[in-house]
Design a protein that fits this description.
Rossmann fold, 8 helices, alpha/beta, 40% helix, 8-stranded mixed beta sheet, 13% strand, single chain, 272 residues
């Protein structure tokens, strides 16, 4: 039985991934802003003692640090961590820390999760971190890491959201060599377009909402993509960005170290 952490497990791809992990007999640790839904899989797993749920707001520094400290204390060993939680907004919205929410949740929070839970991962068997990115990152035409916390321009999906996911894949790539000695492997994965609450919200362009019923899949498909990246085809090199299961060139790769430095500074990394 593996111990696997899933953020964003209360809906969408994260929920379907949690169900699949539980169905395979693994112990799942969840970190969500909202309570887990009362679906049969959750109820059964709780009765078996195979599910440990924690609540915390990844957009709030104090809330996420408190939740992650609880997880680290209760789970000294984690085999795999899936950073699934993500946001796409319809307008700019800063956090209490003064940074825009897409950067805070999509770029910074996954790094904080790794930083806080790294000792647990180091004691695990698989030692794998999977960051959920997006092929929207491939659409970015200009990139300045300095403005990531507060982008100067706003566009639905292809603005701060795309930038935040590009930055996520970039720091994942830049961090990989540093983790070689610990044997922790880090990858970023695009789960493809899925019918989730996020893709039905006001953070989506109107024309993509029109196409959503035709082009977007049930979130089980996205969960399967993440599952395969972690367990079925675990041969992707550390630092890779997987799109449709294959390593894909990351735009602006020459800025990766800058992004990692920015994220480390914003996180106040402890430098394990």
């Amino acid at each position: 039985m593996k111990r696997v952490l899933v953020t964003g497990a209360s809906s969408g791809v994260g929920l379907e991934l949690m169900k699949r992990l539980l169905g395979s007999g693994h112990h799942v640790v969840t970190l969500t802003r909202s309570p887990l839904p009362a679906v049969p899989e959750v109820q059964a797993a709780r009765e078996r003692g195979h599910l440990s749920g924690y609540q915390g707001n990844l957009a709030d520094a104090k809330s996420r640090t408190t939740a992650l400290a609880e997880i680290a204390s209760a789970h000294p060993r984690l085999d795999v961590v899936f950073n699934v939680a993500g946001v796409s907004l319809g307008k700019p919205q800063p956090t209490a820390q003064g940074r825009e929410i897409p950067f805070e949740v999509n770029t910074l929070a996954p790094f904080v999760v790794l930083d806080e839970l790294r000792p647990s991962l180091e004691r695990g068997e698989d030692r794998l971190l999977v960051n959920v990115s997006s092929n929207a990152a491939l659409m970015v035409n200009s990139f300045d890491p300095a403005v990531l916390p507060a982008p100067e321009e706003f566009k639905k999906l292809f603005g701060p959201y795309a930038l935040s996911k590009l930055a996520l894949s970039l720091w994942t790539h830049a961090l990989a060599p540093r983790l070689e000695a610990t044997r922790i492997r880090v990858i970023s994965v695009c789960p493809g377009p899925n019918k989730t609450p996020m893709t039905a919200g006001d953070g989506m362009p109107w024309w993509l909402l029109m196409l959503r019923p035709l082009l977007f899949a049930h979130p089980r498909k996205g969960a399967t993509t993440l599952w395969q990246a972690a367990f079925a085809h675990p041969s992707a090199p550390s630092g890779a960005f997987l799109v449709k299961g294959k390593p894909t060139p990351i735009p602006f790769l020459e800025r990766a170290s800058e992004v990692l430095t920015l994220v480390e500074s914003a996180a106040g990394t402890r430098g394990h």
